[in-house]
Amino acid sequence: MQVFIASSNLGKIREIKAILKKSAFEFVSILDKEILEELKIVVPEDFDVVEDGETFRENAFLKAKAYANLTGLAAIADDSGLEVEALGGFPSVNSNRWFEGSPTERNLALLDLLKDKANRRARFCGVVCFFDPKTGVEKFFEGEIRGEIAKELRGDKAEGFGYDPIFIPEGYKQTFAELGATFKNNISHRRQALFKLSQYVLQDKRLERSE
Ligand code: IMP
Fold first, then answer.
1. Which atom of ligand 1 is nearest to the CA of 81?
2. 3-class SS at 9?
3. What backbone torsions phi and psi does residue 59 show, to the nearest 5 degrees?
């Protein structure tokens, strides 16, 4: 079954494809120019979904629906973010929007907000929405991983994205960026939500008919 990855975030697209590489889905994304041409699907360069929901679930649905309507394919969308305990859960659904600047500048800004805080506990959480316009299937899967915020940026910029250089998963000493993509993809919030989706797909008979 062909499924469109409803995202313009290349880091997310790469992770979703890697995590679900053994699933029954054949993924299509903005990176797959040849398949898009074959399917006669045009995703405008400036295609943007206004994420004005108040929850991960609402925003994941907005994205899945927008891309499904645009492409005619089933779509999966991930809406996720970082929640920092000492900041009352901030930045949460606004993880991508609370600071104007590069990911590195944003990470430095977050470290600055935490500079006097002893409590560095945080978690990544998010929701994956699967939406299939042909069958009307609309499903949500949650994932979470607890950890803490490092004192400085650490790790390879090529590994992961966003807050990976400052997030240390519980039970480890290195950041996600230091641990690397393969490792991260086995334990992350995204992995957990997508694993639930892959289990669900195996048992929903309606999806078998939606070729
Ligand atoms: P959105 O889901 O497109 O609203 O963006 C979520 C934002 O949260 C990303 O742009 C990142 O800044 C952050 N984020 C979500 N998941 C991860 C992750 O796995 N690693 C690092 N940052 C993440």
1. 8
2. coil
3. -70, -35
Tokens of 67: 């891309």
At 43, is the pLDDT very low, low, confident or very high (cuts 50, 70, 90)? very high
Contacts of 8 (CB under 8 A, 6+ apart): 30, 47, 48
Count of helix runs (H) and strand runs (E) in the chain = 7, 6
- Rounded to whole angstroms, the Cα distance separating 150 from 27 reads 34
Judge contact between 64 and 75, C-beta under 8 A.
Answer: yes
- The predicted pLDDT at position 208 comes to 63
32 lines ligand 1 (CB under 6 A): no
Our CA dihedral for 198, 29, 107, 119, rounded to 10 degrees, sits at: -10
Q: State pTM to two decimals.
A: 0.94
Please provide residue 45's backbone torsions phi and psi, each rounded to the nearest 5 degrees. -55, -35
Atom 13 in ligand 1: which residue has the minimum CA distance? 81
Q: Domains of the chain by range and CATH?
A: 2-208 (3.90.950.10)
The residue ranges of DSSP E strands in 85-184, in sequence order, are 121-132, 137-149, 167-169
Q: Is the CB of 162 under 6 A from ligand 1?
A: yes
Between the CA of residue 191 and those of 92, 136, 197, what are the distances in Å? Answer: 18, 24, 10
Tokens 């480890």 identify what position?
172
Which residue out of 7, 13, 82, 90 has the highest number of ligand 1 atoms within 8 Å of its CB and is therefore the one to mutate? 82
